[in-house]
Amino acid sequence: MGYSKQLYFYIVMEFYIVSESLSQENPQSSVEIKCILEGSTAVVSRLQIRLSRSEGAIDNHGITQETDPDISADRREVTYRVINVSEDDQFFCILSLSASIVGSINVTGFVYKLPSLSDPPTQLTRTTTSVTITWRPWDEQTDVGDPPVVAYIPYYKMDPSQDWMNGSRIQADQTLEYTASSLESDRNYTFSVAAVREGRVERTRGPAVTIKTLCI
Fold first, then answer.
1. How far apart are CA 58 and CA 193, in angstroms?
2. Where are the alpha helices (DSSP H) in the chain?
3. For the segment 111-168, what is each residue's pLDDT rounded down to a tens digit?
4. Sheet holding 48-52, edge to edge
5. Which of 79, 92, 84 is closest to 19 using CA atoms?
6. Please, are residues 3 and 199 in contact by the beta-carbon 8 Å criterion?
7. 92 by DSSP, 3-state: which?
């Protein structure tokens, strides 16, 4: 189940467009976006403000209006919810007069980039039926994505056409190593490790390494 946060976007008349109180969520989470119009009574009473996936037209696919518009003399406020946001999504608070779009603001910074290791794991030991790997901790300066990383999940497979098998979850404060057992002897296995960000289980596997079990 995804987490939910609110983002607030203000469109101020006389061509001043300001955004504030940005927060971020992990991909596939639910996010609330609040679009707010501020201006004179005449402006607020005539214009509409909506959330859209497109800047040039109203596209509300996957967007649900959470509340009725909160309208006062100089302010119009509407809250929307978007389910399963992704890194590639784009949203705009659109200001419209009848069927014409008269202003917009790009909603940014609502999705964290999932962390990923930039180096493959390395071999610690190997036998005829097992391989033990280790890896360095995820580093904000040299690796991809946003912190914090709370755990790692090792993956391995024997054949490139096979699906990845995942090992047990290793917490970030534990010893960073994993042993894959019950393997076939004299076989190549491919290993990779994924970093897990706080809050969600989605992850991106890092580079892989091939290690061969010993022959009998």
1. 41
2. 41-46
3. 778 899 999 999 999 999 999 999 999 999 999 988 999 999 999 999 888 999 999 9
4. 48-52, 91-97, 100-107
5. 92
6. yes
7. strand
- At 101, the amino acid letter reads I
Q: What are phi and psi of 44, to 5 degrees?
A: -60, -35
Q: What are the boundaries of each domain within the chain?
A: 6-107, 122-212
pLDDT over 90 at 193, yes or no: yes
Q: How many CA atoms lie within 13 A of 197 on its CB side?
A: 23
Token pair for residue 3? 């987490």
Task: Read off the amino acid at residue 16.
Answer: Y
Report, at the CATH architecture level, how domain 6-107 is classified.
Sandwich (2.60)
Residue in the structure block whose two tokens are 């201006």? 39
pTM of the model: 0.64
According to CATH, the topology of domain 122-212 is Immunoglobulin-like (2.60.40)
Q: Specify the pLDDT at position 20.
A: 35
Distance CA 92, CA 9 (A): 9
> Quick check: 78 pLDDT over 90?
no
Domains 6-107 and 122-212 fall in the same CATH topology: yes
pLDDT score recorded for residue 185: 97
Give the Cα separation of 17 and 9 in Å (integer): 9
The whole-angstrom separation of Cα 211 and Cα 180 is 11
